[in-house]
Amino acid sequence: MANVPNQKWVTDVTEFKVGDKKVYLSPIIDLFNREVVSYEVRQSVKLSLVTDMLKSAIDKLSQHEKPIVHSDQGWQYQNKQYQKQLREQGLTQSMSRKGNCLDNAVAESFFGILKTEMFHDEVFKNADDLIEKIKEYIDYYNNKRIKQKLKGLSPIEYRKQALVTA
Length: 166
Hints:
Layout: E1 8-11, E2 14-18, E3 21-30, E4 36-42, H1 47-59, E5 68-71, H2 75-78, H3 80-88, E6 92-95, H4 105-119, H5 127-143, H6 155-165
Parallel strand pairs: 1-5, 5-6
Antiparallel strand pairs: 1-3, 2-3, 3-4
Helix pairs in contact: 1-3
């Protein structure tokens, strides 16, 4: 876990199916408050899904913030372009041990919550409809969905409170 915001991040990619289409979500989650710092959601799983998400997250950092970025050993995270992005910003890459999904439990937990609360048992018109609903859910998750572990606050409320008392 993390003691302050932007100390440790975790990332992964998950897949959704809508009819004969697939949708991919790539978020970065802050281990301090489980906030989705940045994400990309698209109908293709090209490298840009992950590199664009990482660029957006990096753009939110202040100059002194250099989080450890943890992922599984997916091809995206082993790609030289992704690793170069991390290096150029002075960020440390951390990858799970082979076959150990527990290392990425926070990302998997987020995917489970998202799929339980907004995907399973729902009907979507098409992939674009699902993409829009995912965006709406992430906004809800960050700003309104309370967590007991965060003293009954949403992730963003918890971060703001922590920064005020720091």
